[in-house]
Write a structure and sequence with these properties.
This protein has one domain. The model has no long low-confidence stretch (mean pLDDT about 80). It is mostly helical. α1 runs antiparallel to α2 and α2 runs antiparallel to α3.
Amino acid sequence: MVFSKLVEDPQTANYDVTVMDPEITNCEKELLDAKVQAPRLLTGNRFMHYYFVMGC
């Protein structure tokens, strides 16, 4: 989703990343608070957060 927008409209892609990053953080917090054992999901969220930070 973001990659295709990046090619077409970098400003919109940057906005999408800015909006999605807090959702990743909220997801991670909810998983930890609920004590869900999903290490692959947590790792994926952390990688996504890392890439979002690099892109903004």
